[in-house]
């Protein structure tokens, strides 16, 4: 990772209000300054290196407008814009099965704001579920260091509640009820594969 | 994906292009004719809209160096560079199964240059195969309008032949022998899902 401006981060920070953003300066995470994204990348690396799963974060979608071709090998992008992603950020394969998820965090303590998701991301998740893929979100409560995995079908319910005029967030209690608390460790950092195994077993 | 030109015609224009161009990360925003990438995007759209499969091209990986934050909503990327992709360009789900492929084209007529692929892409494909994903490449011979699907395990053989000092390309005859000729149509444009079904059935 050599990005000086870590990808989604800045963009999302721009678009969201202060209590729902991907990073936080005041929070001591397992490593200082580590974001959920970084922890997931390290987790995915661990899965990859140990042949447990092949899951990658997609590159940040960028609309390229102007490129300087000084030479064949050194094209410099001089003007580009962040695009809204049309899918989720993470996908890959575990034992032949398609895995697809989005990861978000909040500084709220009692609920998770649904504005963290875009409607076309929800649409994408629905398509994935319809196609029998394993679809979920990873939700982190930054202040309490709690990370949950919530299968998409539950997210859809909360999303529907919002679009029919209900609350704009999921209560933490609801996440606890329908989701799984993820174990946090060192190797792997966020072991969501354990829950995927459970989901496959139960499904 | 917006189309300025109707379908088949632009293929013919493509023939003027240079030897082996890389469709996937090439600068298709310049909008010079239909590329294999565009045809695949339209095909994937068709699959998506008809609930046949959920397959997307990943965004081009870009290393962002400098961003201008003029205002909250308008971040302009002022300096960025193309990064070599560490995975293949396309992936998604068909009936729960993980699908993963790379698409390339050549203006050669009798063989397909292996330089179209990077070693880490081959490594990625090996990881996907190991994880029981469905992994292949789509190879287009631009001059003759022939598009083939070749499962990765065959590509690995040709890759190994090259790295042990053998030829640096796959003969078209070999692609015909081990791969599948893809039907070209309008809806969908390149119906590779038909072959995936066969592969699943035979596998």
TrEMBL record, chains A, B:
Gene3D superfamilies: 3.40.1350.10. One of its GO terms (cellular component) is cytoplasm. Keywords: Cytoplasm, DNA damage, DNA recombination, DNA repair, Endonuclease, Hydrolase, Magnesium, Metal-binding, Nuclease. Binds 1 Mg(2+) ion per subunit. Its EC number is 3.1.21.10. GO terms for biological process: chromosome segregation; DNA recombination; DNA repair. This is Holliday junction resolvase RecU. It comes from Heyndrickxia sporothermodurans. The gene is recU.
